Amino acid sequence: MSTIPPCRSRADELHDAHWRRSSYSGGANDCVEIADLGAYAAVRDSKAPDLAPVIFSRSALGDLLDHYTDGETCIG
């Protein structure tokens, strides 16, 4: 699983990104938001949207989500 960020800055893409909030947040703002950046995806804390997001390759994000949707509760 690769978590190597892209080589070039994605500042413009992040500025114009369409952020989606998890449906599990229930409006309480304690969830994550995700933005599609093509080959990469950005993930940020919905309570702190001004902080820098974590950038994942799409395959790394898929691996992470698969890990949790398979019922696993911890990484290690």
Notes on the protein architecture:
The protein is 22% helix and 24% strand. It has 76 residues and is an alpha+beta fold. It is flat, with a radius of gyration of 13 Å. 8% of the residues are buried. This is DUF397 domain-containing protein. InterPro entries: DUF397.
User: Structural class given helices, strands, pairing?
Assistant: alpha+beta
Query: Uncertain runs with pLDDT below 50, 5 residues or more?
Result: none
Query: Within the largest sheet, what's the order of strands?
Result: 1-2-3-4
In helices, the fraction of residues equals 10-25%
Reading the helices and strands in chain order gives: HEEEEH
Q: How many beta strands in the DSSP annotation?
A: 4
Instruction: State which percent range the strand residues make up.
Output: 15-25%
**Helical run tally:** 2
What is the CA-based Rg, rounded? Answer: 13 Å
Mean of pLDDT: 77
Domain count, please report it.
Answer: 1
Shape: flat
The first-to-last residue Cα distance is 13 Å
The main pleated sheet reads as: 4 strands, antiparallel
Protein name: DUF397 domain-containing protein
Domain DUF397: 17-66
InterPro entries: DUF397 (IPR007278)
Characteristics:
single chain, about 80 residues, alpha+beta, four-stranded antiparallel β-sheet, DUF397
Task: Put the structure in a nutshell.
The protein is α+β, with helices and mostly antiparallel strands. The protein contains 2 helices and 4 strands. Strands 1-2-3-4 form a 4-stranded antiparallel beta sheet.
